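Our consortium's second objective concerns turning raw sequence data into structural hypotheses that experimental partners can test. To show how far this objective has progressed, the report includes one record in full. It was chosen at random from the queue rather than selected for favorable results. The single chain below, 372 residues long, was entered without modification.
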Amino acid sequence: MNLFELAPEYIRAIQPYQPGKPISELVRDLGLDKNEVIKLASNENPLGTSPLAREAMIQALSESARYPDGSGFELKAALSDRLGVSAEQIVLGNGSNDVLELASRIFLRPGTSAIYSQYAFAIYPLLAQAVGARGITVPARNYGHDLEAMLDAITPETRIIFIANPNNPTGTLCDARDLLRFIERVPPDVLVILDQAYDEYLPEANKTNSVAWLKNFQNLVITHTFSKAYGLASVRVGFALAHADIANLMNRIRQPFNVNSIGLAAAQAALDDVEFVKLSYMTNRTGMQQMIAGLDQLGVGFIPSFGNFVSIQIDGHQADTLKIYKSLLQQGVIVRPLGNYGMPNHLRVTIGIEEENKRFLYALEQALKESD
């Protein structure tokens, strides 16, 4: 028996997460001009990086020979001041995926189960499978979370429920009141992980004051990322908010230097760049209106979205969707096919700046004409 076969079967069965196609790969594959390619596949900020964060990263480079502050003291202090929680309630991560994994490693193991919605973030089933836990997929309602059905799916073996709000890749949103009633009815020995990666793109009327809920629910963990609205996807900084006891457990197994010095400096500076986040929000709102108007004009269906992306539906079979996808690539436009999410007739498109949205809509029109 070789070493591969000695690995647990549930590890060998994992299908690795497929990220969005990078620009460099498309340039290599099709020989396109890099400057003519636009990427609308990974929900990145089309405005780039917060200017304050960029300057902080440049300054932090001078200390690159030294290990980062393993406790992330200054970033935690800034988050504590901004969010009104104690530093003991904060767990820093190498992106929000990192803190999601920490919670999963603590509470999931063979013989336990995790619950997540159909069409939810693909990382959730991977996290369960990686530790040998059973993943329970609850059928979606109108592409969103069916909270009642998720409650009904709880068993004595359930240890974690994942809720993405807004959800990726569908962009759907749970009402705050419904979400609070849901958490109130979840047994206290089941952890609810509320993934709010796209929270900054929500209008104030749709935001959930989830931080205030931490006082009443020891079994609530809230995750956030600096990858989206703050434009720091490449430096990988995320964080979790939790009851101090839960955060303590997560910090016990966290890698000592899981967030590098560049990321720590960038995230702290980005928190202060209120104008950049506001501009990112407004650019997304305007771009979403532009995108929806263009899709309506083309007669292309889509799922109404509260994120910085929209999932469009291509009529016909999966082959038709892949044909459209390949045509877009040939025109230098990268989007995200959603077949691995169980949505073979959908493509997810990140909202870009005005010219990028216009470019996508034109390319989509050409692709649809070619497929007729």
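The partners drew two points from this record. The chain has a mean pLDDT of 93. DSSP finds 15 helices and 13 strands in the chain. Both points have been shared with the crystallography group to help prioritize constructs.
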